[in-house]
TrEMBL record:
One of its GO terms (molecular function) is carnitine O-palmitoyltransferase activity. It is an enzyme of class 2 (transferase). This is Carnitine O-palmitoyltransferase 1, muscle isoform. Belongs to the carnitine/choline acetyltransferase family. Its EC number is 2.3.1.21. Pfam families: Carn_acyltransf (PF00755). It comes from Sparus aurata (Gilthead sea bream). The gene is CPT1B. It is found in: Mitochondrion outer membrane. The active site is at H352 (proton acceptor). Coiled coil: none annotated. Pathway: Lipid metabolism; fatty acid beta-oxidation. Keywords: Acyltransferase, Fatty acid metabolism, Lipid metabolism, Membrane, Mitochondrion, Mitochondrion outer membrane, Transferase, Transmembrane, Transmembrane helix, Transport.
Length: 659
C-alpha cells in the first residue's frame, strides 16, 4: 500500500495525450517507464482502482468560455450576444455558490459526475428505454462460424460464463491506454445478474451476486435454464442440447405470455404500476424474479438476420432487429439481451444506465474470439464435446396474466435505419495524410449534415473519462467555428484545394484538442450538467443553465471502439471483423450516427432517424443517401452517390498525399 499515493500522483499526469502522434517527449517516456515499473508484471482487473485520480472540476470561467465558443457557429449575432449576456450574468451572480458545492462533492465522492449522471440522465427518465436509451452490438460482419442456432448459442453462452467467472475473480487484465495507462474498471462490476427495475418516480439498478440460471425466450414462451451441473459450468455441447430442446418444444404460449416483455419496451410508469399490481405475488412474482435474477436474457429468434452483400437493406433490418425486435421478444430491462438467429448469427441489445458501450464491447470481443478460436465446432457445425443426456430439461415459467398490456410498436416502427460499409478507403489512407481518423469522420459528418439540412447543428460526440476513478463519458461538441469554415470552403466553388486543405487541418487540430480536453476532465457538458443539478437542489433559478440543458442534440455521434483486447489479428484473419453497433436518434428531428473504423480499409456506419420527421426523411422515392450523408430513406443506387461524396472528401485527401 505504501506505493499507492505516488501512483495516484503519477496517474494524474495527462501531458502525453496532448503530444502529436508519433512524437513522444522525453518526460513522457520517463513517466511511462515509471508507470510500468509501479504497475507490476500481471496486474488484475481492479489492481489500479485505488490509485486512479479523481475527476477534477473545471473552472467556471473556462467552461463558460468554451461553451460560448461552441455555440458561436450555431447562433446569429443577436442570439449570440443574448447568450453571452446570460452566461456572464450567471458567472457573476450564481456560479460561485454552485461551484463551491461541486468542489465539495468532488472531495467526498469518488466521481462528482457519475452518480448524478446515472440517476438523472438514465434512471429518472420516464420515457421508454427501447430505442431511446438501449443500444445494440452486431456479430462478426463476414463470418458465421456455424449455421446451427443452438450450437452457436451454446458456444457463445459458455464463453460468456467463462468471462463472468474471470470477472468475478477480477482476473481480466485491466484496460490500459498506450498499453500502460490504466483505465477505470468499475462499470464492469454490474455486467451480469443485473436488471433495471421500474419505479413510479425513478428506476433502480438491481445487481445480484452469482446466479445459476439463464432466461431464454422463444416464440412467446419463457424458459429457465440452469447453467451449472455438479458444481461446474455446463459445457458448450450441453448448452446446445438445452437450447435445441427449447427450439424443438412445440407448446403454445399461455394467455398474455407472448407479448409480456412489451412492458419493458414502453413508458416506465405504466410498467412500474403493472409490476406492483400484477407481479407482486404468486406464480407471477416467482416467474418475474426468475427473469430479473437471471445471469442475462437470451432470445432464440425465429427470423434470420445478418449482413448479406446480396441484399441491399440486410444491415438495416439486422440493426432494427437488435435495437427493438418485435418489441415483445427482448427484456429491455436486463443489463443485456443476447439475441440468437436461426442462421447462426448473434447480437446484443444492452441497457445503458449501468455502463457505456465500450464495456459491453470488451465482453463481446472476448466472447467472439473464444467462440471462434478456442471452442470451435465439429465438421457438422455442432459444439465440440460429448452430449450429456442426463440434464434436466429447461423449465417453463408460469404466468397468470389478465391481458396483454401496451404496444411499443409505434416507437419501433418510427425508427429508420441505414447500415453502410464504406470500403473506398479507411484508417490507412487517413493516417497517411497525417490526420486523426476520428477528426476526419467528424468533419465529414459536419459536411454531410450541412449538405443534407442546409444548417449547422449542435453535435454530440461521446468521449470517455475512464482514466479517472468511476469515469464514464464526456461530450465533444464537434460543430466548431473551424469545422464551419472548412464546410463552407467545400461548398464554395471558388475555394482552392490549398485553402480547403488548410481549413481542414485547422478544424481537425481543433477537434483533436477538444477530444483530448474532454478525456482529461476539461470538457464542458458534464460540468454544466452538475452545476444545473446543484442549482435544482438549492432552488436557485438560472436562465443560463436552463437554456444550456434544453438545447437538443440534433446530431448525436459515437465511435465504437475496435479491438480493445487484440485477441484476433485482423491482418491475418480479415474475415473476423466486427460490425460495430448503434443507437436510436437522440432528438426526434435529428440523426444518430455510430461508426466503427475496422482494419485499414473499412469504416462501417450505423445511421438512424425517425420516419415521423419530415426533415430527416425526404421524399421516399428519390432519397440521396451516401456514406456520410445522413439520409436514411429507401436507398436506391448507392454506388454513384458514394462516389460523389467520397470525391468531395478525396480532394483534400489526394492533395495531402501529393504534398
Amino acid at each position: 500500500g505504501g506505493g499507492l499515493p505516488v501512483h495516484r500522483a503519477l496517474l494524474s499526469y495527462h501531458g502525453w495525450i496532448f503530444e502529436s502522434h508519433g512524437k513522444m517527449s522525453t518526460s513522457t517516456k520517463l513517466w511511462l517507464s515509471l508507470v510500468k515499473m509501479f504497475s507490476g508484471r500481471r496486474p488484475l482487473l481492479y489492481s489500479f482502482q485505488a490509485s486512479l485520480p479523481r475527476l477534477p472540476v473545471p473552472s467556471v470561467d473556462d467552461t463558460i468560455q468554451r461553451y460560448l465558443e461552441s455555440v458561436r457557429p450555431l447562433l446569429d449575432t443577436k442570439q449570440y450576444n443574448q447568450m453571452e449576456i446570460l452566461a456572464n450574468d450567471f458567472k457573476e451572480s450564481k456560479a460561485a455558490q454552485l461551484q463551491r458545492y461541486l468542489i465539495l462533492k468532488s472531495w467526498w465522492a469518488t466521481n462528482y459526475v457519475s452518480d448524478w449522471w446515472e440517476e438523472y440522465i438514465y434512471l429518472r427518465s420516464r420515457s421508454p428505454i427501447m430505442v431511446n436509451s438501449n443500444f445494440y452490438i452486431m456479430d462478426l460482419l463476414y463470418m458465421t462460424p456455424t449455421h446451427r442456432q443452438a450450437a452457436r448459442a451454446g458456444n457463445v453462452v459458455h464463453a460468456m460464463l467463462q468471462y463472468r467467472r474471470k470477472l468475478e475473480r477480477g482476473e481480466h487484465a485491466p484496460l490500459r491506454a498506450l498499453g500502460t495507462v490504466p483505465m477505470c474498471s468499475t462499470q464492469m462490476e454490474r455486467m451480469f445478474n443485473t436488471t433495471r427495475i421500474p419505479g413510479i418516480e425513478t428506476d433502480i439498478v438491481q445487481h445480484l451476486t452469482d446466479r445459476k440460471h439463464l432466461l431464454v425466450y422463444h416464440k412467446g414462451r419463457f424458459f429457465q435454464v440452469w447453467l451449472y451441473t455438479g458444481g461446474r459450468h455446463l459445457l458448450p455441447s450441453e448448452l446446445e442440447t438445452q437450447f435445441q430442446r427449447i427450439l424443438n418444444d412445440t407448446s403454445e404460449p399461455q394467455p398474455g405470455e407472448l407479448k409480456l416483455a412489451a412492458l419493458t419496451a414502453g413508458s416506465r410508469v405504466p410498467w412500474a404500476r403493472a409490476r406492483i399490481k400484477y407481479f407482486g405475488q404468486g406464480v407471477n412474482k416467482a416467474s418475474l424474479d426468475a427473469i430479473e435474477s437471471a445471469a442475462f436474457f437470451l432470445t432464440l429468434d425465429d427470423e434470420p438476420q445478418g449482413y448479406d452483400p446480396a441484399k441491399t437493406r440486410s444491415l438495416d433490418s439486422y440493426a432494427k432487429s437488435l435495437l427493438h425486435g418485435k418489441c415483445y421478444d427482448r427484456w429491455f430491462d436486463k443489463s443485456f439481451n443476447l439475441i440468437s438467429y436461426p442462421n447462426g448469427k448473434m447480437g446484443i441489445n444492452a441497457e445503458h444506465s449501468w455502463a457505456d458501450a465500450p464495456i459491453v464491447g470488451h465482453m463481446w470481443e472476448y466472447v467472439l474470439a473464444t467462440d471462434c478460436f478456442h471452442l470451435g465446432y465439429t465438421e457438422e457445425g455442432h459444439c465440440k464435446g460429448d452430449v450429456n443426456k442426463g440434464l434436466p430439461c429447461p423449465s417453463r415459467l408460469q404466468w397468470q396474466i389478465p391481458k396483454s398490456y401496451l404496444s411499443a410498436k409505434q416507437i419501433a416502427d418510427d425508427v429508420d435505419f441505414h447500415g453502410c460499409l464504406f470500403t473506398e478507403f479507411g484508417k490507412g489512407l487517413i493516417k497517411k495524410c497525417r490526420t486523426s481518423p476520428d477528426a476526419f469522420i467528424q468533419l465529414a459528418l459536419q459536411l454531410a449534415q450541412f449538405r443534407d439540412q442546409g444548417v449547422f447543428c449542435l453535435t454530440y460526440e461521446s468521449s470517455m473519462t475512464r482514466m479517472f476513478r468511476d469515469g464514464r463519458t464526456e461530450t465533444v461538441r464537434s460543430c466548431t467555428s473551424e469545422a464551419e469554415a472548412f464546410v463552407r470552403a467545400m461548398e464554395d466553388a471558388g475555394a482552392t484545394k490549398a485553402q480547403r486543405l488548410a481549413l481542414f487541418r485547422k478544424a481537425a487540430d481543433k477537434h483533436q484538442n477538444m477530444y483530448r480536453l474532454a478525456m482529461t476532465g476539461s470538457g464542458i457538458d458534464r460540468h454544466l450538467f452538475c452545476l444545473y443539478i446543484v442549482s435544482k437542489y438549492l432552488g436557485v433559478d438560472s436562465p443560463f443553465l436552463k437554456k444550456v440543458l434544453s438545447e437538443p442534440w440534433k446530431l448525436s455521434t459515437s465511435q465504437t471502439p475496435q479491438q480493445q483486447l487484440n485477441l484476433v489479428d485482423i491482418n491475418k484473419f480479415p474475415k473476423y471483423v466486427g460490425a460495430g453497433g448503434g443507437f436510436g436518434p437522440v432528438a426526434d428531428d435529428g440523426y444518430g450516427v455510430s461508426y466503427i473504423i475496422v482494419g485499414e480499409n473499412l469504416i462501417t456506419f450505423h445511421i438512424s432517424c425517425k420516419f415521423s420527421c419530415p426533415d430527416t426523411v425526404r421524399a421516399q422515392h428519390k432519397s440521396y443517401t451516401s456514406v456520410f450523408m445522413l439520409h436514411l430513406s429507401q436507398l436506391s443506387d448507392l454506388r454513384s452517390v458514394f462516389h460523389s461524396l467520397s470525391l468531395s472528401l478525396y480532394l483534400p485527401l489526394c492533395y495531402c498525399l501529393t504534398v
